[in-house]
Amino acid sequence: MKVHQLFKAALATSLCLTAFAGGAMAQAKGAWQNTSLSPDERARLLDAELTLDERISLLHGPMPLPFPGSPPIPEGAIPGAGYIPGVPRLGIPALKETDASLGVTNPMNVRPGDTATALPSGLALASTFNPKLSYDGGAAIAKEAASKGFNVLLAGGANLARDPRNGRNFEYLGEDPLLAGILAGESIRGIQSQNIISTVKHFSLNGQETNRHWANSVIDEAAHRESDLLAFQIAIERGQPGSVMCAYNLVNGAYSCGNDHLLNKVLKGDWGYKGWVMSDWGAVRATDFALKGLDQQSGQQLDEKIWFGDLLKEAAAAGTIPAERLSDMSRRILRSMFAAGFFDGKPGKPVVDLDAHAAIAKQVADEGIVLLANDKGLLPLAAGSQKIAVIGGFADQGVLSGAGSSQVTSVGGNPVVIPVGGEGMLAAFLRQAYHNSSPLKALKERLPNATIRFNDGRYPAAAAALARQSDIVILFANQWMSEGMDAYDLKLPQGQDALIEAVAEANPNAVIVLQTGGPVLMPWKDKVGAIVSAWYSGQKGGEAIADILVGKTNPSGRLPLTFPASADQYPHPEVPGWNLPEKQQFDVVYEEGSDVGYRRFAAKGMKPLFPFGHGLSYTTFAYDKLKVKGGETLEVSFQVTNTGKLQGKDAPQIYLAGANGQKLQRLIGFEKIDLKPGERRTVTIKADPRLLARFDEQGHQWRIDGGDYDVVVGRSATMTVLSGKARVSQRTLKP
Ligand code: BGC
User: Taking the model in full, what pTM does it have?
Assistant: First the structure.
């Protein structure tokens, strides 16, 4: 959009606002105020009161940030991600939107000094396999957001990790639709428990960041339903988000925000979704996206035109957008506002207990850090007077975080911020920021008798010299990832593999702590003593890592995505579109279909470096007494016993292993349990029948063929402990 257009847009917006302000809150009394009516009915009544201009004003809004050339931030907006003016005449509040996947964000420090609790990354959360932590985290973010005046959280990232190089995998919840769907749904439920609206995003198949505006995700319909769409479906059923954010990419040839099939047929049709679809920021390309199911244009100055402003009004006048559809758009927004209690004397701004929220961040990190290998039993560290070298990764300062719109300016500040620069809108967001939680400091506090020395790792020879003089080495290796870009490959960047090799050669008692936004290759795996995946561990990450290393916390994280042995184990040897110029559309063919991640590894008989679901503990768990019941679906129960000497948490996993002799692998259940030594517990799960089914595109339904279904209980996707089977009856289910 040209600068003068932006100014015009700004003028239009501010004129609108002046008009509202003039109407000075003379709230009309209306039947919609009757709280005994349903949100649907109340929205219908209120919607009928809107003038055309008022209705249109609810359907678009700017990103209230001071980008060069952008219109001024509207009065009444909180600088941040999004703003949709309200209609004071009718008491309709403005929508004040903030990014919130990992905490309330403060992009470009636009609200100077405004910090928030930074939770660990989505992958760390997914590694907890603990839905309650997802709920608690969501509720904590929502309280902070409400206290800052926001009422819509752009949260609930549920895209599956199809490509391990995807720059946003860290924001999402791994590669499995059940795990991602449950955790996203619980986080949304937590958020909305605070009278705040949450989104679920980015609908759908936003599987890579490279040229994301021109990537056409190609997938077979049945495969889509059984994978990414299933994750969204489960998240929506559980969380009932007020809004769904469509994505930047195209899906099977149509932009996801103008995709009749996805929005009208699947989301609003098959799933009966009652909330509204908001666009991603800069993802609208035409006014007729309204006919394809898009209800609201967000961050409008990032689009070529304000499609849902005057242009939409003109289209409505010309009859190309029917009045009924226009009304449906605003009614959906109002419905979500009613459902979230926006009109019913919401409680005042909540009092925020930052210590309690820090404790939630710590808990997520405690349960999300994954002990990948401990071959030499180096961990937990002994409490004696040993000499410990801590190397690299800015471990003396803090823990790494991922970048982009989800980046949180954390409570406690960012002791290290390395600007990355670059061009374009995202450049302002690109910085490698560390949360103020130093693992080195935390280790020193926990091991007062040890001699702990630090080397920054810039020169492998110097690091190796310190390693040689030490009894044990803890080396931090980082992979910084960001929205807007993918990893070029799966190697640790900036020569860190060579650093690890040099250090491990000097002292094989090396513990490698990975801070990454996804899986990385480990050519040095067999030369080191232990490997810990800390992901991006949030504002209490340093303490959480140290607690795992010294055994104060018994590790219980499990991988929510496969760590491959090589990048060739995925369908695309390079990130598709890597070398293409902007604006050139290209296909990303998801030929793996619904066999995302571990399912494809199983189908192809490939051996990963570390499988989905893998994670070690300092205690041991035994599984027995498996019972598998068939019928309409599978009901599985078994007993877990802590057979070791320490209290610990386990996340046993139940997989469908086959149907009628055909081998399959699908996670159908999991549970996080906490057991004292010797304690046992029976775990019972009832499988979501869609996980036993295939999507029958022609019949437009889920179909369970019926027959003998094999079940395994295991410690990971490849480590089976118990197996059983049962007869499941043939049936179909609505899409
Ligand atoms: C991201 C969304 C985010 C929005 C607003 C976009 O670039 O894709 O996830 O909510 O910006 O900041």
Answer: 0.95
